[in-house]
Amino acid sequence: MKKYGLVLALVVALPVVAANGYEYNTSSNEGYYTTRTVKKPVSNKKTTTSRKNGGYTNTIQNNFYSSSQPARASSYDVQTTTTRQNRARPTYSSTSYDYYDYDDNSYAVKERQVRRVNKTYSTQERKFFLAHPFFQPLKGRFGSVTDFSYATNNFKFDVLNGGVIDVDTGAVLAPNTALDPVLSGKAETTQLVVKEDFSFGLSDTLAIIGMLQYDRTEVTLKDWSDGTDSTKTKDSGLNIFGIGLQSRFVDNHDWIAMVSGYFQHQRKVANTFIGELKIGYKVDRTTIYGLARAGYSNLIKGDIYGAYAEDKTGDWMMLSYKTDVKDIVYVEGGLGAFAVLNKYFTLNGELIYGYYDWHEQLSIKGAIGWQPGDMFALNLYGSTSLYDSAKDKTKEYLLYNLNPGSSATYTTGDYKIKDYNEWKVGVQAILYF
């Protein structure tokens, strides 16, 4: 592949920034809001009680969990009275009685009020959920999101026509001719990713983000209608490095908002700039939010990208998505909701529509989070495409043959995508310290 650059599974590998979430974590009657530091829990009109058991009330307010023990009254008042034997007698009531002894051994009772003394004990815990999509560490603290994922996209296609060109001279060896019958096949790209996002709070509202990604990508061309063997290409390595800034510029009882910007270098492929804006509204246990995301990539080598596979002899084939291109642009917009189920579990869902340079897609994502303590959480997620405009699109393919003993040749022509599918599953391990 001397003439053309390659973006291996670029659509699958388009970055999903795991550190673009937000939450924070404190305990022992202290909480954080961007407007001020609160020494005691703040009451809120959006407070709901989720569980009451054994005298303990568990409350979720603005997406953090509060567990408070009710006031424990230890009321007592020891009133000493004197009888005719001059012995002290304690009284444990709000009302005390004096006893008088008469000669006829009858007793008169006089009632008087006694002051009560109440001692109140209370405890409260505040827990912030690390899987929240607006997660960001506070000043001087660190956040880590380690993301393990597996993704795939696949599509069936028909090769419609082809013409042969001599690589050395550029001479046309065979004119472009329609195939009858067409040649059918299937392209499948799979990718295993380990991605680390590490963040540090420069202030309570601004954090710096660093990221690394290791990925292993396989592209397979298979299921040929003429019985041709499958062709598979593998590529792996530490391929993405990035740095960025994240600002949670609004956070009050009702609203929360975050803006982010990143630079990513994809080794030997592209330099990418990403911007993101999220705005959320808090409703009891749930944050409903909208998001907008845009990315711009400049290809480092070549002017073509698509699904590429090479066999052991050095022959290769590319089903291109776009040719004669140096820049790739994508834009996404969507709606999401994050809900707190109880002290340990959360749910997150997103519906996203995106323009990805050569096709458009509607996708859905769901996640369930488990957080057993203040500093660690697991977030299991999955996503899939619901609609993709790639279906029925006609694109260009290139087939390179070495042809031992003679000149190498290019076969070029058109192929038509019959369907297109994507899905992804993963788990995030989140630390905060």
Account of the protein in words:
This protein has one helix at 10-13; strands at residues 31-32, 37-38, 47-53, 56-61, 64-68, 81-82, 88-89, 95-101, 107-113, 124-128, 142-166, 172-201, 206-222, 231-251, 255-266, 270-283, 286-299, 304-310, 316-323, 327-340, 345-356, 360-370, 376-388, 394-401, 409-417, 421-432. With 433 residues, it is an all-beta fold. Strand 16 (270-283) and strand 17 (286-299) form a beta hairpin. The chain is elongated and about 70 Å long.
State the secondary-structure class. Answer: mainly beta
Order of helices and strands: HEEEEEEEEEEEEEEEEEEEEEEEEEE
Low-confidence parts: 1-111
Q: Specify the helix fraction band.
A: under 10%
Strand order in the sheet with the most strands:
11-12-13-14-15-16-17-20-21-22-23-26
Assembly state: single chain
Major sheet details:
12 strands, antiparallel, barrel
Morphology? elongated
- Beta-strand percent range: over 45%
Please report the total strand number as a whole number.
26
Radius of gyration over alpha carbons?
A: 34 Å
Number of helices: 1
Q: What is the average of the pLDDT values? A: 78
Query: What is the straight-line distance between the termini?
Result: 47 Å
